[in-house]
Design brief:
Oligomer: single chain
Shape: globular
Radius of gyration: 20 Å
Distance between the termini: 48 Å
Strand order of the largest sheet: 1-2
CATH superfamily of the largest domain: RNA polymerase sigma factor, region 2, helix turn helix motif
Helix content: 55-70%
CATH class of the largest domain: Mainly Alpha
Number of helices: 8
Largest sheet: 2 strands, antiparallel
CATH topology of the largest domain: Rna Polymerase Sigma Factor, Chain: A
Strand content: under 5%
Number of strands: 2
Low-confidence stretches: 1-13
Number of domains: 2
Length: about 200
């Protein structure tokens, strides 16, 4: 395997094969190659994370630029907790950037008292291509989409979501319930339109 060198330390693997700990050390040394490896490794994933919250690609570009600056700026304060923790930390920074962007645009609207919506029976989500499912989630109203993403992808409780978004815990639960019901209807429509 080709050798690589970051901050004067030679590794017997290519930059893309560095462990997360090795990559973190390179970032802390402000090594430009480490920065490049970090960007190459995580940019696609972090873009997908931002797009879950903000479907506007130009806004996502701004969110990512600001997030990467924050990551590189705060990397010395990051506490490594094992493989995957650097990626998770970077993801949290991007999610917070996306939420800040949505708040700044006044797009997070929540309805406190929602009438009951009939619960949809289980929908065969696995029959929907990932790209289509992502588009259907992006098409949800901003408030629904935000709560749905925080609950499903970030594994936040409704209490944590309420704290993050400045809403009541019940509002988080009802926004999620409505998002799930609307998504189920969209999936059913998609599957019906693409029956063979």
């Amino acid at each position: 395997m080709p050798e690589g060198s970051i901050a004067g330390v030679t590794f017997s693997r290519a930059g893309s094969e560095l462990t997360e700990r090795e990559l973190l050390e390179a970032l802390r040394r402000k090594d430009s190659r480490g920065t490049r490896v970090f960007y190459d490794r995580y940019a696609g994933y972090l873009t997908a994370v931002a797009l879950r919250y903000v479907p506007d690609r130009s806004a996502v570009k701004d969110i990512l630029q600001e997030s990467f600056l924050r990551i590189f700026d705060a990397v010395d304060r990051f506490e490594y907790r094992g493989e995957g923790s650097l990626r998770s930390w970077a993801c949290r920074i991007v999610v917070n950037g996306a939420l800040k962007s949505l708040r700044g645009q006044g797009k997070l609207q929540y309805v406190e008292d929602l009438p009951d919506v009939p619960e949809e029976e289980d929908v065969p989500v696995q029959q929907v291509p990932a790209a289509v499912l992502q588009r259907l989630i992006q098409d949800l109203p901003d408030g629904y989409r935000t709560v749905f993403n925080l609950y499903v992808f970030e594994k936040k409780s409704h209490r944590e979501i309420a704290g993050l978004l400045g809403i009541k815990e019940d509002s988080s639960a009802s926004q999620f319930f409505r998002a799930r019901a609307l998504l189920a209807r969209q999936i059913k429509t998609y599957l019906k339109e693409h029956e063979r």
